[in-house]
Amino acid sequence: MKRFSVKTKITMWITVLTIVLAVLLSVFMLSVSNTVFLETVKSRLSQTMINSIGRLSINDGRLNIEAGFNFYDNGISILIYNKNEALLAGQIPVAFTIEEPFENGMTRIVNADANEYLIMDIWLPDGWDNGVWVRGLTESPDYVQTSGNLRFMLFTALPGFIFLAAIGAYLIIRKAFKPLNKITSAASAINEARDLSGRIGLPEGGDEFSRLAASFDSMFERLERSFEAEKRFTDDASHELRTPVAIIKGACEYAEKYDETPEERKETISMIHRQAVKMSDLIYQLLSMARLDQGTERAHFEQVDLGELSVLVCGEQNYDQARLSVRSEENVLVKADSSLISRLIQNLLDNAFKYGGKDCCVDVSVKKVGEECQVSVKDDGIGISYDEQEKIWQRFYQVDASRGDGSGSGLGLAIVRQIAELHSGYMTLESIPGIGSDFILHLPAEKI
Length: 448
Ligand code: ADP
Prior knowledge:
The protein is an alpha+beta fold. It has nine helices and 15 strands. The chain has helices spanning about 5-55, 145, 150-195, 210-240, 240-255, 260-295, 305-315, 340-355, 410-420, and strands spanning about 55-60, 60-65, 70-75, 75-80, 85-90, 105-110, 115-125, 130-140, 300-305, 325-330, 335, 360-370, 370-380, 425-430, 435-445. Strands 3, 4, 5, 6, 7 and 8 form a six-stranded antiparallel sheet that branches. A five-stranded mixed sheet has the order 10-12-13-15-14. It has a two-stranded antiparallel sheet with strand order 1-2. Strand 1 and strand 2 (about 60-65) form a beta hairpin. The model has no long low-confidence stretch (mean pLDDT about 85). Bound molecules: adenosine-5'-diphosphate. Adenosine-5'-diphosphate binds next to helix 8 and helix 9.
């Protein structure tokens, strides 16, 4: 059975079942119809015998047969014998060649030559020791002939029916399995081409195959996202870490080669430390992005009060609290992952203080506007020129690395945007160079 396809196996199973069922049904019908035929002939025989006996009488040793007595009635031969079993009246069928002893009242089947006969004998008495035998004789039903329709059904209609059932079953199964073939070929095409952007793309439907295809497609999508994120992480990490590693390597080689003064050595060490911190920040940011990209950093959505969360995040800051103010309306509720939103606010605060200058003030305000909740992080810092305002959301984009404290990597705002989009929200920016910037997070409000 191993070498047969599932389609063939199911078709064979259905065909075998149909054959078994048909044979059982036919045998049952044949046996029922045989019994019915035999019983019908028996009752016809006994009825004819009763009628015939009623038209015979014996008076003073003389047998009286009514006028118009039928010796051959309804396929039944009526024979009258004397007590010595000599035929008095009636015509024995030519094929009935045997001498069958008489048995009063018994209906039985006897074989004569190739034929079967049904016989019924009745003793018609005349006094103590006289009388006549009346015998009813008919050919027993020819089952095969009488069940002609059944025969036709068994040998012609039934094989045709089984053939049709098998073909029908095969066609239906083949049609039902078509999506599976599509799934298999799509999956192997994706595998062979190693191109994860392929999809099975079965039309949506309630059946098992559509659901299987949809699951495969979403699995391919996750795999694709995961591979892309991994590739991007590897590319970014190797590209971005190259500079700090080169600086550290250069500084170490220089320190090894030349006799440095204690001051120079201190400067080298603090440079190495700065680059190490930068590398560690960069790795942390890259990993965050990769996890968000891959979806491995699963968001735990729950009802969050954006006002309470913002107050909490601002309260935990090491920045001069006098320069940081936070205002919020009550019940600004959203469905969100509080740790991701905290990271988003943290990034905006870091930027605000980084690019705001020494004396800048940062104002965080939380409010509900229509169907939206907004968190605004506003500073009165250096601002961003109009040309740059679109670009700053790109990965690794920095307006001018020298503008901040040199710790930037260009990933902070990309992460901010990624987190906002993960929450079905978006970011806007209002910024005027020299006046300040206002970064606003927009999230759909939770219905109360
Ligand atoms: P970085 O690590 O360089 O800060 P970000 O993605 O956070 O990267 O920011 C991208 C660029 O946008 C920064 O290089 C900076 O020039 C600019 N920027 C971000 N926030 C502000 C801000 N509040 N004020 C002025 N410029 C900003």
